[in-house]
């Protein structure tokens, strides 16, 4: 039984325990040592907690399992058991909405993943899925913790499984902030978006040393798997920035355009840009001559709210544009051919890029606007042998499978199979519009005339004059701007200056659209 005399001693003991708790928590918050922190900063990198502070709203972070330690033995691990075990996990808010996060702490075991480390990540991923909130990973880890052997590898398996389970359910964003190899690169590849920072972040399955040992090739870390390589060549990276602060600010911007989960719509915002704003500049931006290039980004700027949009994969497969923006305050996904790059043709990489973007939009209830100016698929032996049929089918499959509102606008030319693939009415677009400059046809007039009138041209006294006459005849018969409208292949031919208003009204009408897919476990898309 506690006596009155004992009470102060117990109270003092309680205060001592609380003081001990605060000291332990402060030790976990500071990390291993000041020297380790200085080494991190010497590489131009922030600490894990500094990154979390930049990502989340001020003061909103709630940490989970900050006092977790590994229980491994051998190779000196039993003498080194830092708090957090090299990963900080928890939740907070971004623009007031709940977001879950985990961040590798490179100062502890180089951010390498061990059993306890993985278990913390598994827990926060499970919490994100159950809460229906986005998950952001701040990656700065050296792969599996070699000293823990296969237990570390199994930890990656659990992450991969949860990445797949969460796919299309909650947004998953990977931010690469250091060298990430092996399993540390595969998890980001399973997520919806990958951000990288130039010079400090890399991704590869096998590093330069292994490449040199196996193939004899000499290459740096950045040359093998740096931000620019993955943003321009491989397509692994969706966004690349020069510094961590800018990168994390753009992650916040992306989160503002995405719903928390697949059961919600993207967040709306008040809009001061009038829905009925006339876009007279569009008449000058897009030349009537189908052979003259122009920048499709300027067209998008004229159509969307305040000219603002976030381009995904900006530097990869530049012949097609994929972007998130808003129209009248509502989020919309935009897929558009870019005449400034390869004349806007579809090729292997463009098809893959657009297909993944369409699938993402469909998964997260984002309406899709498609702007067409496409001369066809890129011809060539490399394209055919590389599987343009298979890769082009990915885009076709993605559009056909999408149940969100879909609107397409033919600005200029739309030829052949590429016209069908780019969300034509025949594959399920809800509404299709065309400008008076549109040319919808099986192929260009010159090519068509050479096929249809080959004999007449060859037998003519003046083949060039005959060819010109046949081209003109084909255009007047099958390629005039109203040919598709007369046959119901487009819903209307509209004044380019009124495009924004027409699109906003159409999107508002389609907001309540509901479409079901056939009952099935899942489809079997082309790979």
Fold and architecture overview:
- The chain is an alpha/beta fold and 527 residues long.
- Strands 10, 11, 12, 13, 14, 15, 16 and 17 form an eight-stranded mixed β-sheet that branches. The chain has a seven-stranded mixed β-sheet with strand order 1-2-3-4-5-7-9, sandwiched between helices.
- The longest helix is centred in the N-terminal third of the chain and has 25 residues, at 6-30.
- Residues 1-6 have low confidence and may be disordered.
- The radius of gyration is 28 Å and the shape is elongated.
- It folds into two domains: 32-257, 2-enoyl-CoA Hydratase, Chain A, domain 1 (Alpha-Beta Complex); 282-444 and 479-510, 2-enoyl-CoA Hydratase, Chain A, domain 1.
- It contains 21 helices and 17 strands.
- Helix 4 packs parallel to helix 5 (150-166), helix 5 runs parallel beside helix 6 (183-189) and helix 17 (445-452) packs across helix 19.
- Residues 14-270 form the CoA carboxyltransferase N-terminal domain.
- Residues 274-509 form the CoA carboxyltransferase C-terminal domain.
- InterPro entries: AccD/PCCB (IPR051047), AcCoA_carboxyl_beta (IPR034733), ClpP/crotonase-like_dom_sf (IPR029045), COA_CT_C (IPR011763), COA_CT_N (IPR011762).
- This is Acyl-CoA carboxylase subunit beta.
């Amino acid at each position: 039984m506690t006596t009155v005399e004992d009470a102060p001693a117990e109270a003092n003991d309680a205060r001592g325990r609380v003081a001990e708790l605060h000291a332990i928590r402060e030790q976990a918050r500071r990390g291993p040592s000041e020297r380790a922190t200085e080494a991190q900063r010497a590489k131009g990198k922030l600490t894990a907690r500094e990154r979390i502070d930049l990502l989340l709203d001020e003061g909103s972070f709630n940490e989970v399992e900050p006092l977790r330690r590994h229980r491994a033995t051998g190779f000196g691990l039993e003498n080194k058991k830092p708090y957090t075990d090299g990963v900080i996990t928890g939740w907070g808010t971004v623009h007031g909405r709940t977001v879950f996060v985990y961040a590798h702490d490179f100062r502890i075991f180089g951010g390498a993943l061990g059993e306890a480390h993985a278990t913390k990540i598994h827990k926060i991923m499970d919490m994100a899925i159950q809460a229906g909130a986005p998950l952001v990973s701040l990656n700065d880890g050296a792969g599996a913790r070699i000293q823990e052997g296969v237990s570390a590898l199994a930890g990656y398996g659990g992450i991969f499984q949860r990445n797949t389970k969460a796919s299309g359910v909650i947004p998953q964003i990977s931010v690469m902030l250091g060298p990430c190899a092996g399993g540390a690169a595969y998890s980001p590849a399973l997520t919806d978006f990958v951000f990288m920072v130039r010079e400090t972040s890399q991704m590869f399955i096998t590093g330069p040393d292994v490449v040199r040992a196996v193939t004899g090739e000499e290459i740096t870390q950045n040359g093998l798997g740096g931000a620019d390589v993955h943003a321009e060549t491989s397509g692994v990276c969706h966004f690349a920035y020069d510094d961590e602060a800018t990168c994390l600010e753009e992650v916040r911007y992306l989160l503002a355009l995405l719903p928390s989960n697949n059961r919600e719509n993207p967040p709306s915002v008040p809009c001061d840009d009038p829905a009925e704003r006339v876009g007279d500049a569009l008449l000058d931006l897009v030349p009537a001559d189908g052979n003259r290039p122009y920048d499709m980004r300027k067209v998008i700027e004229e159509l969307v709210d305040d000219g603002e949009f976030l381009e995904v994969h900006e530097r990869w497969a530049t012949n097609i544009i994929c972007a998130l923006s808003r129209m009248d305050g509502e989020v919309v996904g935009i897929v558009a051919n870019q005449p400034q790059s390869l004349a806007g043709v579809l090729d292997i990489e463009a098809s893959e890029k657009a297909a993944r973007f369409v699938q993402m939009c469909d998964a997260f209830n984002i309406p899709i606007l498609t702007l067409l100016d496409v001369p066809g698929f890129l011809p060539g032996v490399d394209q055919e042998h590389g599987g343009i049929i298979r890769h082009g089918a990915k885009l076709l499959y993605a559009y056909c499978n999408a149940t969100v509102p879909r609107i397409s606008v033919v600005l200029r030319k739309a030829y052949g199979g590429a016209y069908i693939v780019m969300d034509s009415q025949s594959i399920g677009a809800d509404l299709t519009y065309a400008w008076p400059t549109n040319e919808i046809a099986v192929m260009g007039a010159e090519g068509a005339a050479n096929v249809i009138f080959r004999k007449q041209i060859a037998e003519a006294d003046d083949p060039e004059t005959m060819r010109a006459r046949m081209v003109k005849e084909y255009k007047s018969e099958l390629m005039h701007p109203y040919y598709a409208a007369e046959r119901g292949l487009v819903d209307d031919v509209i004044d380019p200056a009124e495009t924004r208003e027409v699109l906003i009204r159409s999107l508002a009408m389609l907001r309540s659209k509901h479409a079901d897919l056939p009952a099935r476990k899942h489809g079997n898309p082309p790979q």
